[in-house]
Amino acid sequence: MNSIYKNPTAPIEARVQDLLSRMTLQEKLGQMTQIERSVATPSVLKHLCIGSLMSVGGSGPREMAPTSEWAEMVDNLQKAALESRLGIPILYGIDAVHGNNNVYGATIFPHNVGLGATRDAELAERIGVATALEVRASGIHYTFAPCVAVCRDPRWGRCYESFGEETEIVRNMTSIVSGLQGQQPEGHLKGYPFVAGRNNVVACAKHFVGDGGTDKGLNEGNAILSYDDLERIHMAPYLDCISQGVCTVMASYSSWNGMPLHASHFLLTQVLKEKLGFKGFVISDSEGLDRLSHPYGSNYRQSVLFAISAGVDMVMVPFRYQLFLDDLTYLVQSGKIPIARIDDAVERILRVKFAAGLFEYPLSDKSLLPTVGCELHRKLAREAVRKSSVLLKNGKDPKKPFLPLNRNAKKILVAGTHVDDLGYQCGGWTATWDGKGGRITIGTTILDAIKETIGGNTEVIYEQYPSAHTLASQDFSFAIVAVGEAPYAEFGGDSQELPIHFNGVEIINLVANMFPTLAILISGRPLALEPRILDKLEALVAAWLPGSEGGGITDVIFGDYEFHGKLPMTWFKGVDQLPMNAVEKSYDPLFPIGFGLSSKGEVL
Ligand code: GLC
TM segments (predicted)? Predict the structure, then answer.
């Protein structure tokens, strides 16, 4: 008789219980283990019953590998896993946080801070749908997204991964979960994981909870606030994700009032699982257990004890899996971790795998390959870039708007470090973990887009680093200067001063002193902008980290589309004001959260 767990028409909970009842302790612990693809040999997958694989940022078949090679790589690993005694398929996860950003040629959407500027939940959902297709095309089933952090301080290196500073903005944008996983049908059991089909992916709401509220914005720091404020400000978006059937939640590296999230039974089990009714699985962050320190882990075995007991169900090891399995086996066999905790974790993992249809569709669907970087998705990304661009100034004299620019001007200067750099406009989590400059994938830089937009008789002069000498002898109708931040990720982005990188202020100064100038800031957050700089500019646009479709910026600066964006973060006057959120009495921003102009100079 065919096993119940192999029967796709059987109820998920029956399949879960049937399979669980057949599993040995080693197989159960294997399912709780997520390892990096580079250590996943066929033998390890077959004999250790590993539950999940992942790619750390940039880890794939080879540099600039096409999607088909990703699909082949994942399928080969999956086939090895299906050779295991019970044939439990692996769940392969990756950080597809703004498109399938590790994969060459994938559509790169604006990072979350830009999506927050759109305030457009329906757009976010459509981006989720497109991202899911491009992820499944690569054979991958699971994305560690969305980050639903509420970033209260732009000094945090992961500000750009947050939809914004206010809970309501983030709550609104969690609609991306329904895009990634598919729309949950009416009557779907609350809190239970949902994935519509093989064109959708398992999503991951992260990083639970309070990652964006740490003291001084320090990454992996300590959020010091009452439980009521933690729940009101940082936990609310998780309720929206759970109500959409989010399959997984990732624990945060950070702490709450000194308690590391990875060791917090109160928050991971009593609140998330019991109070909020979350029935998917909790995954640790990468080496999240290794980062526990005394008294939550004077050694790794202690850390395993704290984290699994707190409610972590799957551990993103991702390399030292034998040590993890040895320690966890000891802890269970010595009774320090009850088998009931293991069974709860494995039930949750299996529940997600059955909900995701993994047993029915373990391998990639080659018919999805043409969706990767397709015209439709690039148009969607371009729409998102348009809607995320925030017009902060338009005309030294508001009665004389500077934008839209004249596309038939005689001669224009296009200058700055970020005007022709695809890697800079994509930012971190693109091609590699913390991103890099240059033509890192297929896309359109701002300069490419300007050349596509302007009239045939307009001369465009490009100067990455303009000098007074080269400019003095020239007469330009106007100048467009794009500057901003170099790509970064996590700790690499923590900044107390929030400067414009590569002497961007000097570039703006030099050009704006000589010609009417529009400045475009390519950054993951508001940056330090002195009023004297602002006064010199005719116009200023915050374009965040727009991704591969730079044409969305020319769409609005040349007037083919109206500006739509509103600040998702407060734009401070000076870093000494931080943290500064609209609810404080001392709220004295350069531009308040929600600010944005139309090209006619009206406040949106
Ligand atoms: C990182 C990040 C997390 C990411 C994970 C896997 O350290 O904190 O957001 O999903 O590791 O790359």
Answer: none
Bridge partners (DSSP) of residue 178 are none
Confidence at residue 31, expressed as pLDDT on a 0 to 100 scale:
98
pLDDT in tens, 228-261: 999 999 999 999 999 999 999 999 999 999 999 9
Positions marked active-site: 285, 490
Alpha carbons 307 and 76: distance in angstroms, whole number: 32
- Backbone angles phi and psi of 142, in degrees to 5: -145, 130
* Residue 106 tokens, joined: 């994938």
pLDDT, one tens digit per residue, over 550-572 is 999 999 999 999 999 999 999 99
CA 253 – ligand 1 centroid, Å: 9
Query: What is the position in ligand 1's atom list of the atom closest to the CA of 286?
Result: 11
Q: Minimal CA–CA distance to 268: which of 192, 331, 345? A: 345
Distance between CA 248 and CA 150 in Å, rounded?
A: 18
As a whole number of angstroms, the longest Cα–Cα distance in the chain is 86
Q: Which atom of ligand 1 is nearest to the CA of 433?
A: 12
> Going by CA atoms, what residue is nearest to atom 11 of ligand 1?
286
> Which one, of 228, 552, 584, lies nearest residue 378 by Cα?
552
Looking at ligand 1, which residue's alpha carbon is closest to its atom 5? 286
State the closest ligand 1 atom to the C-alpha of 207, by its place in the atom list counted from 1: 9
Amino acid 1: pLDDT: 57
Domains of the chain with bracketed CATH: 4-370 (3.20.20.300), 389-577 (3.40.50.1700)
Structure tokens at 142: 């699971």
Radius of gyration of the chain (CA): 25
Query: Residue 2: its pLDDT value, please?
Result: 78
With the most atoms of ligand 1 within 8 angstroms of its CB, the residue from 286, 430, 432 to mutate is 286
At residue 17, what is the residue type?
Q
> Which residues approach ligand 1 with their CB closer than 6 A?
56-57, 95, 144, 206, 285-286
Q: Closest Cα to atom 1, ligand 1: which residue?
A: 286
Helix residue ranges, H only, 11-120: 12-22, 25-31, 42-48, 67-82, 112-118
**Residue 549 — φ and ψ, nearest 5°?**
-105, 75
Please tell me the pTM assigned to this model: 0.98
**Distance in Å, CA 497 to ligand 1 centroid:** 25
For every residue of 505-540, which 3-state class applies, written as one string? HHHHHHHHCCCCEEEEEECCCCCCCCHHHHHHCCEE
